[in-house]
Amino acid sequence: MHKIHLKPGKEESLKRFHPWVFSGAIARIEGKPEEGEVVEVRTAGGEFIAKGHYQIGSIAVRVLTFDPQEDIDKDFWRRRLTAAYALRHSIGLTERADNNTYRLVHGEGDNLPGLVVDVYGRTAVIQAHSAGMHLERMTIARALAEVMEGRVDNVYYKSENTLPFKADLYPENGFLLQSGEGEPTDIATEYGLHFHIDWLKGQKTGFFIDQRENRALLERYARGRRVLNMFCYTGGFSVYAMRGGASLVHSVDSSGKAIDLTDKNIALNFPKDTRHQSLAEDAFKYLDRMEKGAYDLIVLDPPAFAKHRDALRNALLGYRKLNLKAFEKIKSGGILFTFSCSQAVSKEQFRTAVFTAAALSGRNVRILHQLTQPADHPVNIYHPEGEYLKGLVLYVE
Ligand code: SAH
Description:
Elements: E1 3-6, H1 12-15, E2 20-22, E3 26-30, E4 38-42, E5 48-54, E6 59-65, H2 74-90, E7 101-106, E8 115-120, E9 123-128, H3 131-135, H4 137-147, E10 154-157, E11 174-178, E12 187-190, E13 193-196, H5 212-221, E14 226-230, H6 236-243, E15 248-253, H7 256-269, E16 276-280, H8 283-289, E17 297-300, H9 312-329, E18 334-340, H10 347-361, E19 365-371, E20 390-396
The structure holds S-adenosyl-L-homocysteine.
């Protein structure tokens, strides 16, 4: 196994179980590891500290184990997946008749950096975010089929957009395993509501499972309210608002495809219901031209404005501008659900951006809830960067 030798003192974060080795921490590399290979990490003093997947880039090693005795073999994947399932089972997500949609593996949160697995009924979707996970995809798929035996028949691979293109590392989307009869259904159920999942081309693994609990909360506030779901994607918040008894629901997204998916999902759950309308338009333009007081409940769930730290300043200005428009237009006594899913933006920074927007609007604003990602997207306590979803529910007078 190739060895990565750290600069003196650079083992400190690893000693606290942080699962990344940055390229700047490396003194020298023994041998010439291929991208995705398992390498051993050693301190400047030559002591073993971790094993993980090697990759060229700012995160050079994603740690799989801190135990020198633990091999990265078939049993390793089985153990980690079993532990991930046990967590979902213990929080009551796996045996519900009204829900078959959950995240089974959340990267570092499940001690599997670079790997995401989402379950949609009898199909699991694997997404690799590192070369190492890409190379292991078949082993992972087989271990998954074993661990989820009787629960999952199909394992789909969807990493075309999460891995950098490389000729010898081409992550084609498609089924890795298919044991069910006939074509697997693309309809998943979340808290009794149904959603088409676009594995082929959809964002993430096809659905934003991470907003489940926040959608359920919105349902409780929807009754009698006129709801605007901005950045609706597949219409998750809209479908919950409909069930919650909203008097009207408008879904807006700049992508025509997203609007089609939203319409399909509304029709699937509420056929012939005339309360819903959708529109493909840019959020900023729509908020600019919409009438003051047109909505009593607004959801703002934009894409990550900052994908990297360098984009932070502009991202914060973006959140401020967007929220300011909503504060200026929402009906008095209205409720604003506002989110940021940028990992590079901290909870405090997001709050400051929203506070600044509130102050600029001059409205009296109170926080009702502070939201985050759900329990099937756990945060490894040694990897605080894993806490990426931030939300505020605000009462706007
Ligand atoms: N709320 C959704 C997830 C939102 S993802 C859910 O619960 O499933 C972000 C969405 O924002 C994407 O669908 C993307 O098409 C849309 N989007 C990106 N830029 C936009 C813009 N300027 N105006 C409107 N929508 C935009």
